[in-house]
């Protein structure tokens, strides 16, 4: 049975989601919708301040609930720093995401199955951020000047060896029903918000198209692709075909007809290099060297299949379809085909078992055109060449890649290819160019005259940077036309290719812009590079010969990013800053915000310390701060490590030293330091420290010295240890050293007393400590023989008091320990459901988890970060009068509306969330009880639910049951989706 949506006579993927009603099972629409929401949350919102990674939505008109980017960043940060099996860490992240009010709102009408699918899909996005991950999503400027919009791409952050399966680059699939397929085609033909140009792949065996979404959808096409689509269990991922260098773009082959016949409108780097596709001198010429095409096609594993498919289907009627995002060919005849009846279960997401995806590698990327595609050939895992796990294929990062998606435009020319600029713009129309290009565009908009754009032969070469490979450029001016002549430097790779391809500069007609090209990244043969030695690094220059500002971290030319016709980055203050100071590109800023490491490093070196505060987690904040931080970070880190080592060495030396004076000196310092500066930040108490190097200063250390604070914060145990030394020293002092010595130390320990004080003290004879109850000291005083209090007391007392002091000090130190219960902290109210609690990371405690999760009223956060203003509106923007609309002012209502109408089993949890009950539910699920819970839930009498609902706020009656159901399902989803989603994935990850 087909899903309800697919049986509808109206297009399933119609504009907007308001009219959509959830069906029992997930379908293409659910996947599209979920992907829109999740990519918004976990890609877009984690952009860099005002530079969002704009994701093209399947349905750009749909309203997405607002979320706070800081909360999202916190989840990702936690994922990054948490140690443990990836699937567990990711599961925790998904758990937390599902507690977000916006997510609950989004899921309010979802069935359990839909929630599970959503959670699984979310895990795909979270996996991107794994510290062991090897890819990142970034901006690319390659297609922007043609499509008129921001485009994203996938970059390698580690060198990847051939055969590596990029496990975190996953895609979920859903079958496209005939109606959906047709709806997409219709959408592609009209100026609609629904776009066809997503990953639509075709199953040869099933003769069906599938929609393919998730992080994998950001993989762009290159005629000389470096990865192939690969089926791994129930999802789609990619396998590396040739070495990929850091910073190189991951590219797949969509098929020979994806961008028009023989991809004549393709804008990939290979086409640019070879002057083909969209870079051909006469791109409209369909007869563009077929031999050339076959050159590039020969690199792809499935090209022969694809070609044969083309030949086998001469009847394919290729009609060019121009969309905002490119030009596609459509097969009109295919529209009329009727497929087999759709199995309803097959439509479940993700990749619901073998039914969804043919076991044989017959999936094909196609846009309802000729079936030639690499995506057609989804090779199953060959027995003889099992996919290597990513980790096994990784080599240490020995070099920093510099090429990135933020490369300057290869051309601003629209070329002779008709672009889709006339199309209606999307909410996020954007163009990414270099600053120079942007200026040029501004300057030349008034110029009607023709200019030349450089068609450059980009270097498909390595990293240690494109800049280091030294493309040089000359600008000549001929009859008012600017030409950019780019001479790429020879590289091992380019030399290797030089036999087949000429890497001369080709100057293209038309348009705007002289420009400088940086070498594009590509998999470098590290061995070859090593033989030839590091290439000389040349700073990239503009056409005017002036140095272009480059990112201080990755070395790429700083881009100019335009979103929705507004320069959001590159020509503002940061550009001025960039001239005098070092500046990072948005990609590196974003990376630092997530990993607190300079790009592309994700995990700190062993022993290194990091410094971050919750404020650092704000991408927007980091936009202005992180660049400096990145610059300083390495220096500081090195200094801090050095200082720590030095300190340790000194401490060891001190320990070995027999001289008590040294010990006492240390003791004094530490004791003094501990008292006034108890760190308040839990992260500091835990050893996440200020990375200021500790320098020794002469003289008595100041109490307020930040260095001292950091020292104490870093190593509280040292305090204790040294206090013990102090006791030991005191003991020695009392028992084995002359009084005179004691006096000397005593004077250091205690403030000097003037004789007048002494006299006063003698006169008052007031006991100074409870110990004096024995009268001993009083006796001493009465005899008028005042000495230092220590001297006056017996040894036993002396030791006892020191011990007391020590206990006090230790307990004071211990009280700083984050594990020490602090009731006032436990009940700290929180506005959002995100929890901190670093201890949870290392020692998951259900109760603690629950306390965090339920510590405060759950509300919709309307104080989203600034970038929300440009983000999609929330449903409440549209449906504000509706009772389910939750506002910050109405916390109680929000909470109750979001919380589930419980089955009887969990009734108390619903309106008075019990941390313990929550934790029980949360963790019991993991131990296999969820089935029981689920069955109990099913059996829960409906009227009982109703009773619960009646107690709730009247105003949310209409929707609370639905929302409550969603919450209930959300809370108990984990057992199901994790069991399902990770069943196959564990093998890989
Ligand atoms: C599956 S998406 C890839 C990710 C896409 N860049 C994005 O930001 O969503 C496919 C779209 O990327 C663009 N694209 C990818 N490779 C391309 C190529 N070689 N030439 C032209 N456009 C390309 C086209 O707009 C295409 O519709």
TrEMBL record:
InterPro entries: Hist-Lys_N-MTase_N (IPR041938), SET_dom (IPR001214), SET_dom_sf (IPR046341), Suv4-20/Set9 (IPR039977). Keywords: Chromatin regulator, Chromosome, Methyltransferase, Nucleus, S-adenosyl-L-methionine, Transferase. GO terms for biological process: methylation. SUPFAM superfamilies: SET domain. Residues 336-347, 863-876, 946-956 have a biased composition (Acidic residues). It is found in: Chromosome; Nucleus. Residues 373-393, 427-456, 964-989 have a biased composition (Polar residues). Residues 275-546, 641-842, 860-893, 930-989 are annotated as: Disordered. Residues 311-321, 496-516, 523-544, 650-671, 712-724, 746-756, 804-822 have a biased composition (Basic and acidic residues). GO terms for cellular component: chromosome; nucleus. Gene3D superfamilies: Histone-lysine N-methyltransferase, SET domain. One of its GO terms (molecular function) is histone H4K20 methyltransferase activity. Pfam families: SET. Residues 133-255 form the SET domain. It comes from the Eukaryota. CDD domains: SET_Suv4-20-like. Residues 285-305, 394-426, 464-478, 765-775 have a biased composition (Low complexity). This is SET domain-containing protein.
């Amino acid at each position: 049975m087909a899903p309800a949506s697919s049986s509808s006579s109206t297009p399933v993927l119609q504009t907007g989601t308001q009219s959509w009603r959830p069906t029992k099972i997930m379908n293409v629409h659910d996947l599209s919708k979920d992907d829109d929401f999740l990519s918004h949350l976990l890609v877009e919102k984690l952009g860099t301040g005002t530079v969002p990674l704009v994701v093209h939505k399947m349905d750009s008109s749909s309203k997405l609930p607002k979320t706070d980017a800081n909360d999202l960043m916190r989840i990702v940060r936690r994922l990054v720093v948490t140690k443990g099996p990836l699937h567990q860490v990711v599961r925790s992240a998904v758990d937390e995401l599902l507690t977000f009010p916006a997510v609950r709102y989004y899921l309010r009408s979802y069935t359990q199955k839909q929630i599970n699918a959503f959670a699984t899909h979310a895990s795909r996005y979270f996996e991107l951020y794994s510290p062991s991950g090897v890819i990142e999503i970034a901006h690319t400027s390659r297609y922007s000047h043609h499509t008129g919009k921001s485009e994203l791409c996938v970059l390698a952050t580690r060198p990847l060896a051939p055969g590596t399966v990029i496990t975190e680059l996953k895609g979920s699939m859903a079958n496209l029903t005939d109606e959906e397929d047709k709806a997409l085609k219709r959408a592609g033909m009209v100026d609609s918000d629904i776009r066809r140009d997503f990953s639509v792949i075709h199953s040869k065996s099933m003769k069906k198209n599938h929609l393919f979404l998730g992080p994998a959808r950001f993989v762009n096409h290159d005629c000389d692709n470096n990865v192939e689509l690969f089926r791994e269990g129930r999802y789609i991922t990619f396998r590396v075909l040739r070495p990929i260098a850091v910073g190189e773009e991951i590219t797949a082959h969509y098929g020979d007809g994806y961008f028009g016949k023989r991809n004549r409108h393709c804008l990939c780097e290979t086409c640019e290099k070879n002057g083909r596709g969209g870079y051909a001198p006469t791109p409209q010429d369909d007869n563009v060297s077929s031999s050339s095409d076959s050159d590039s096609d020969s690199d792809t594993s499935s090209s022969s299949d694809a070609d044969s498919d083309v030949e086998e289907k001469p009847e394919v009627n290729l009609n060019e379809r121009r969309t905002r995002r490119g030009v596609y060919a459509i097969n009109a005849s295919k529209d009329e085909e009727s497929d087999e009846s759709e199995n309803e279960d097959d439509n479940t997401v993700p990749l619901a078992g073998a039914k969804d995806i043919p076991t044989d590698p017959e999936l094909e990327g196609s846009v309802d055109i000729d079936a030639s595609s690499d995506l057609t050939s989804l090779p199953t895992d060959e027995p003889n060449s099992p996919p290597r796990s990513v980790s096994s294929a990784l080599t240490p990062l020995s070099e920093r890649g510099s090429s990135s998606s933020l490369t300057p435009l290869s051309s601003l020319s629209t070329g002779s290819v008709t672009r889709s600029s006339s199309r209606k713009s999307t909410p996020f129309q954007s163009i990414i160019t270099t600053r120079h290009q942007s200026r040029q565009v501004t300057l030349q908009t008034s110029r009607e005259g023709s200019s030349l754009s450089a068609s450059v032969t980009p270097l498909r070469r390595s990293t240690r940077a494109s800049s280091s490979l030294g493309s040089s450029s000359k600008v000549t001016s001929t009859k008012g036309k600017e030409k950019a002549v780019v001479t790429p430097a020879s590289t091992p790779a380019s030399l290797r290719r030089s036999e087949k391809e000429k890497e001369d500069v080709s100057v293209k007609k038309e348009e705007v812009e002289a420009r400088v090209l940086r070498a594009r990244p590509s998999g470098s043969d590290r061995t070859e590079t090593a033989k030839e030695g590091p290439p000389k690094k040349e700073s990239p220059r503009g056409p005017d010969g002036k140095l272009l500002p480059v990112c201080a971290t990755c070395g790429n030319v700083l881009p100019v990013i335009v979103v929705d016709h507004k320069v959001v980055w590159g020509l503002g203050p940061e550009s001025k800053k960039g001239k005098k100071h070092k500046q990072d590109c948005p990609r590196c800023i974003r990376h630092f915000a997530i990993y607190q490491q300079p790009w592309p490093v994700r995990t700190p070196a062993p022993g290194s310390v990091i410094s971050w505060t919750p404020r650092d987690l704000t991408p927007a904040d980091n936009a202005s701060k992180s660049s400096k931080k990145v610059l300083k970070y390495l220096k500081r880190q090195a200094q801090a490590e050095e200082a720590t080592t030095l300190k340790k060495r000194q401490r060891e030396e001190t320990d070995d030293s027999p001289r008590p004076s040294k010990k006492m000196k240390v003791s004094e310092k530490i004791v003094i330091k501990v008292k006034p500066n108890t760190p308040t930040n839990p992260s500091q108490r835990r050893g996440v420290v200020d990375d200021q190097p500790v320098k020794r200063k002469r003289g008595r250390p100041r109490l307020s010295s930040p260095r001292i604070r950091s020292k104490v914060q870093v190593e509280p145990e040292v305090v204790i240890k040294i206090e013990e030394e102090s006791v030991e020293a005191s003991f020695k002092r009392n028992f084995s050293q002359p009084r005179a010595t004691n006096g000397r130390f005593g004077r250091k320990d205690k403030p000097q007393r003037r004789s007048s004080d002494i006299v006063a003290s003698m006169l008052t004879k007031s006991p100074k400590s409870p110990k004096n109850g024995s009268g001993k000291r009083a006796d001493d005083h009465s005899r008028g023989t005042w000495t230092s209090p220590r001297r006056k007391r017996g040894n036993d007392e002396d030791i006892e008091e020191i011990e007391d002091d020590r206990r006090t000090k230790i307990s004071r130190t211990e009280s700083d320990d984050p594990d020490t219960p602090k009731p006032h902290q436990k009940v700290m109210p929180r506005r959002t459901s995100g929890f901190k609690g670093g201890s949870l990371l290392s020692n998951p405690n259900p109760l603690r988890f629950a306390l965090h999760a339920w510590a405060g009223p759950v509300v919709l956060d309307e104080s989203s970060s600034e970038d929300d203003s440009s983000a999609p509106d929330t449903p409440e923007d549209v449906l504000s009068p509706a009772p389910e609309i939750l506002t910050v002012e109405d916390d109680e209502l929000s909470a109750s509306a979001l919380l589930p109408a419980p089955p009887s089993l969990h009734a108390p949890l619903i309106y008075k969330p019990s941390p313990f009950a929550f934790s029980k539910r949360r963790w019991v699920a993991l131990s296999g009880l969820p089935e029981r819970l689920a069955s109990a839930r099913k059996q829960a009498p409906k009227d009982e639910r109703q009773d619960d609902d009646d107690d709730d706020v009247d105003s949310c009656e209409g929707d609370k049951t639905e929302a409550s159901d969603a919450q209930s399902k959300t809370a108990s989803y984990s057992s199901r989706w994790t069991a399902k989603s990770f069943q196959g994935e564990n093998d890989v990850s």
